[in-house]
Design goal:
UDP-galactose 4-epimerase, domain 1, six-stranded parallel beta sheet, alpha/beta, binds 2-amino-3-ketobutyric acid, 41% helix, 2 domains, 315 residues
Length: 315
């Protein structure tokens, strides 16, 4: 069978997507890769390889050796980390995508998946129910790289028929990995603090709304998009995708009934400006119409599920 390569498998999305793809296609057909060998230990349910996506020869050799026909290219520097080293973030996020698109063209691959983000939107974007098509003008290097990446995805589809598919993820929340340098990651960290019995200091204001999604919904959306018939994928830049919208105060209030002693305070830092430049909510009707997207988890259900599993989860 043709193999599936996942680049950046040990991240928040990658670790859960590697498991879901293994469940579907079998561990012998999924190759999970990461730059850090230690990160691969927990992915022993499928094939694993240490791989630096910037090492083009190594990626090309692996693709040919394993007869890879699909790539999920997830490696990226996220918004908050990106602001600390903008040129590196640009270099990694852009060069790696262009290389993978070029490789897909050369090797006539079946499909490529590349995640975009609500970070493509900026301060001049309509903030409520942000439409699929509108002013973007992102002002983080991460957002600029995602917007440029979307243009390159559409370009490679139109000019070279590369079947590349993409979603603009909201903040993704899962309990199987630790926060990874994103602005929305406070909503991951808060659960760890609650179960550890610690006070939580939010780096965003109490009323700072952001679009968010529980990881099982994100995995479902990704696999539904990738399995949809080609003619149903009408947007080749990236689809708006939405599930739940909440503020730090609201997620705290969803946890409090489970941990009545849990406390929170608010000390906004540089990440507040990033959050302020992003939408409060996103209109994802095109995803719902074109390939039948729907989400399952609201805030209460997500919190109950995380608090059920996280205390016994080992990292
Ligand atoms: C981040 O906060 O940087 C990411 C994202 C919204 O893409 N989670």
């Amino acid at each position: 069978m043709d193999r599936i390569l996942i680049i950046g498998s040990a991240g928040q999305l990658g670790s859960e997507l590697s498991q879901a793809l293994t469940d579907m296609y079998g561990g012998e057909n999924v190759i999970a890769t990461d730059i850090n060998p230690a990160n691969l230990q927990k992915l022993d349910f499928c094939k694993t390889e240490v791989l630096d996506v910037m090492d083009k020869d190594a990626v090309r050799t692996l693709v040919k050796k394993e007869n890879v026909k699909q790539i999920y290219h997830l490696a990226a520097v996220l918004s908050a980390t990106g602001e600390k080293n903008p040129l590196f973030a640009w270099h990694l996020n852009m060069e790696s995508l262009l290389f993978i698109l070029e490789l897909a063209k050369e090797e006539k691959m079946d499909k490529i998946y590349w995640p975009s983000s609500i970070a493509v939107f900026g301060p001049n974007t309509p903030k409520i129910n942000t439409p699929q098509y509108c002013v973007k003008e992102p002002n983080t290097v991460y957002g600029i790289s995602k917007q440029a990446g979307e243009r390159w995805c559409e370009y490679y589809f139109q000019k070279f028929n590369v079947d590349v598919r993409s979603l603009r993820y909201p903040g993704l929340i899962g309990y199987k990995s630790l926060p990874g340098g994103g602005t929305t990651d406070y909503a991951v960290d808060i659960y760890h603090k609650a179960i550890a019995g610690e006070h939580f200091v939010s780096f965003l204001r109490e009323d700072s709304y952001l679009p968010m999604m529980y990881m099982p919904d994100a995995i479902k959306a990704t696999l539904d998009l990738m399995h949809a018939p080609k003619e149903k994928i009408k947007i080749r830049s990236s689809y708006n995708l939405a599930a739940i919208n909440f503020s730090p105060k609201e997620i705290f209030e969803s946890i409090k009934p489970h941990y009545p002693d849990f406390t929170i305070s608010f000390e906004p830092d540089f990440r507040q400006a990033i959050a302020d430049s992003w939408p409060d909510s996103v209109d994802d009707s095109r995803a719902r119409e074109d390939w039948g997207w729907s989400h399952d988890f609201d805030l209460e259900r997500m919190t109950a599920d995380i608090l059920k599993h996280l205390p016994s989860y080992s990292f």
